[in-house]
Amino acid sequence: MDTDNIISVQGVSKNFPGVRALSDVSLDIKKGEVHVLVGENGAGKSTLIKILCGIYSPDSGTVYLDGAPYNPENPRAAMEAGIRVVYQEFNLLSYLSVAENIFFDKLPLKGIIVDKKKLYADTADVLKRVGLDVDPSVPVELLGVAQMQLVEIAKAISSRCRVLILDEPTATLSPSEISRLFDIIRVEKQQGLTVIYISHHLNEIYEIGDRVTVLRNGEFVGTRNTGEIEIRQIVSMMVGRQMDSEYPFMDEPRPLDAPLLEVRGLRIAASKHEISFVLKKGEILGIAGLVGSKRTETARAIFGADSKLGGQVLLNGAELDIKSPKDAVGHGICLLTEDRKSQGLILDMQVDSNVSLAALDKVSHRGLINHGEERRHAIHFTDELGIKTPSVAQFARNLSGGNQQKVVLAKWIFRDTKILIFDEPTRGIDVGAKYEIYLLLWRLLAEGKGILIISSDLNELMGICHRIIVFSEGQVAGEVLRPDFQQEHILRYAYRVS
Amino acid sequence: MDTKKIAYLLLNEAGIGIVLFALCLLFSLFVPAFASMNNISNIFTQISINTVIAVGMTFVILLGGIDLSVGSVLALCTILAGLTITKESLPLSAAIVLSVIVSMAAGMACGLFNGWVSERWKIHPFVVTLGMLNIARGAVLQVSNSRTIYSFPKEFNAVGTVSYFGIPLIFVVAVLLVLFGHFILKKTVFGRMIYAIGNNEEAVRLSGHNVKFYKVAAFVICGATVGLAAILYMLRLNIASPILGNGFELSAIAAVVIGGTSMSGGKGSLIGTLLGAAIIGVLNNGLLLVGMGDFARQMVTGIIIVAAVVLDTYRAKVSRMLI
Q1: Is residue B1 part of a domain?
Q2: ipTM of the assembly?
């Protein structure tokens, strides 16, 4: 066996009732490398990770750690073997301090009392390693998302950690936070840490990864050195077919000059600035900006989900009085929220009920629901949007992330609003489903609608928008037209660098 | 039907039905008097009022709320209806019709208060209805001078004993109400909104619906069923009293919970509630026939409530695994 490998997965399979999550997967992780794991949702990445960290055990096949068979009985055994995971959803105790979180299972003791002095000193050391400048005694709930993530990483590397698994670590980080995270990864790698990195952002592979492994439908597709493969090829490996581009952009239809939605001097809570911009008919307008630049808050204020402090919203030149989402929907404006699980879907209801949630009047007569009609519409949408579900009677909870998002989309397409505001429409969704969603946007444009997209993925915005406005600290810092789309250009506005 | 679907049904209403059936079978085998026509008719009478209140309670609990005030409000409704019906200036038929209207209107007004206050100031209904429990009790003692009214017209009292083939009229009313409510919940937009809000209020609001309206409406419905229950109570016992209804809220909540409705909202049905009320009634009746005392019976009812909720956690887990 190759002694360069710290982990070697040999012919591992794992079945769940009705699903083959992993089938005969073999791959090697070299000592001290950053190994990126990519694949669409349902490709088997999470299952593989859960096997490595002792949550599942494989049905067949063997995992070797340093050449010896490794089959941790539980997460604790995996931790003791030096394999640590930082999940997308953090496992922090929000009311405890940073220090207590990091040293939760190994608090330094003086007799039976926690040795606070040593605890804080040790914590300060680890925090320095991850470049986080916070007081060790601060409760975690006061930290931002990026800081919480660094606490998680600090927790992982504070004990003997040989393999650090990062599950979508950049999903909620701003560009500067991402680059800081990458710096930390590089430093730790120099110290001999091996990193397994899972991401949906393919461009990150080149920045941080040494090798990349693609999984598809629970099968191993291939491992490549990142220097020897183009993004296009990775995408093809992931979806199993040729794709010309990550983003479809079409010449037709062109946006009309007439403003469809006009926001004038909008003022929102916790911001002293006024926001004004125009969305044209047939246009996809992107809103870029850092986390905390008040993009989501602006969208929510337009939609009436939160109250606005002042300013006007005009539709086709006429001022709208929007006090609630009900008013907004009545005027033909919809908002696809950032968090589909808690704000978009009713997870414990069927797909058809979710699709008709905003358009119950279309499937009912005098307050009586026509279930046959409802079902027919839902089937129409699942076909048209390619929603993968055994039937429309399936609970929304059991669909994959991409399909759930398509159900939310179907809900608003069924409502048939003139203006669609999308907040992070493709977050956590795999490449294939993203592409289908982009195509769908173009179909909607052809019907004369206007689309506003908020996204933290600049490549996405540059790929699909006609125009991008950049938010910075609660105001519109700049506007970039398609011919001038450049990452640097947009970021300069976002950071307000002249 | 495939096995999954059958298993799913068993875990829901069908399962509660089987428990009820098993209980009835058990009592019939060991207590001959249980299965007599007379006794069954008695059970129907005994569970009617609780069933009617539990219908309204189901609407409220499906939205994740609770109404603790139903017992006192029921007393208030009986007294107001009793004062109306005994007014001698009114012709008999008008007095009866008016008393029904007064009772329902009083119940709905209390429900409107409960719903509106808890929505307007975002106070948990537990607290608001706890307040209403005291307000209504105080009001009814005040209005009635803490006196019981029992001089109803004999025509009115006669209705309370009407029965068809051993099935009492008031039970028929209760079952019709359950069926009507079931229809509302399962077939109408209103019912769909109740379930949807109970599951995810924010998603419903952001889909462009007036969530507050539905939440207040559920309390008003609950009040209306209390008003109806008050009339049934007067028909059955021929009295209106300011001190009745103590603990009715607990029996109603118990029926709803045993019937499989989730206290956190969004899941459950009125058929379940009817079966839940029946289980409580059958247990009480059967255990009494066996010779069990009041105190022991109360303990058994308590155990059943806890068991139902424990079962509910498994039910959620198992049905998630099945799908």
Answers
A1: no
A2: 0.87
